[in-house]
Amino acid sequence: MRLKSKGMQWLTALSLLTAGPALASEDFAVCTAQLADKALAQGVSQQTVDAIFPKLEYQARVIELDRSQPEFVQTFPGYFSKRVTDWRTTKGQEMLAKHEKLLNALNDKYGIPPHYLLAFWGLETNFGNYKGKMPVLDSLATLACDPRRSTYFTQELLVAVKLFERESLTKDEMVGSWAGAMGHTQFMPSAYTHYAVDGDDDGQINLWNSEEDALTSAANFLKSLGWKPGFRWGREVTLPEGFNFQLSGYKDRRSLSDWHELGVTKADGSPLGEDDTTAYVIVPAGHAGPAFIAYPNFRVIMRWNNSEFYAIAVGVLADRIAGAPGIKATLPDLPAYSRTDIIALQRKLNQLGYDVGKPDGIIGPATREGIRNYQIANKMIADGFPGLDVMAALKVTPSQTTS
Description:
The protein is 49% helix and 5% strand. With 403 residues, it is mostly helical. The strands form 2 sheets. It has a 5-stranded antiparallel β-sheet with strand order 4-6-7-3-5. A two-stranded antiparallel ribbon has the order 1-2. Helix 1 (8-18) crosses helix 2, helix 6 packs across helix 15 (308-321) and helix 9 (136-144) runs antiparallel to helix 10 (150-166). Residues 28-319 form the Transglycosylase SLT domain. Residues 339-394 form the Peptidoglycan binding-like domain. GO terms for molecular function: peptidoglycan lytic transglycosylase activity. It comes from Alteromonas profundi.
């Protein structure tokens, strides 16, 4: 059946979509008909369009997940301890042995050491043990027909349809995250199209069923993101007594020689070394927690997933897979702040003249800067972290659940 353009009906569907997250089946059909015409206009065959678009199903759960916000704000100790585990380390070492020849070849070709590829794989899907169960084409169509991010997800859907055709995939095997990330390495369709590589030379790029394709694609992706061969991600460090925590964070990048002069050492106390490599200090759990120094490859990891917590987890897990012992510092026992707690904190800071923007319950750069300025003004350690001392000073009582 050829799906025809429905012009004004599409505009009507969009107006109905704006009214709320629920979408009637007839409106979804109008939307997907329009998407089908776009696919045809971009060169997708009629056969592929007929195989996909009439069978697309609206996924209400996808909209719920897109709109939902977690009740609690995860702190670094909670995040890190759940991701850098003995199981992932041991499994990563098993996979290192299993794919040793391939991983070494990828290192030679792309400059990505084996333990980093394995760390990404472990964090993304537990080495393929959980690749997601949501129907990717349905999920992307649902998000494309929702006005909030329609342009982005329309493009991702059309790319996914082209992948379906190019790689002779089936709709049933195209499963992944609710947002459309796919396969062992959780590539979005656009990343799949531009960076996925046929690692097992079978003539097909299948990131679900081929570990070789997935690892090769990850190496190609990281190289394209700017990975610097021969350099680490960063490392855990020990900060000197009386360290000025105003020097922490991405805005204060300095050479390793400068950090050496300031008394920063490796975690075991040995010299950091003198070099012109630019790096910055991170204290993800505040001054009472571990400290790390981040090299340029750290920012490459963040181009994969824009989270410092994620990048630290990748780096430390990679180190452990390669045989390192993990971090030396003890993770502090922090409460699991609720979003309500952080909103209360933000409101207090705004009231006191430390502008952190509209209270949203997210500890972003503006909130950290506001906390830091409050700490400076009140002669506290200016680490920009909402520690219990800051919460107490601002009379915000956090949740008692620890992270």
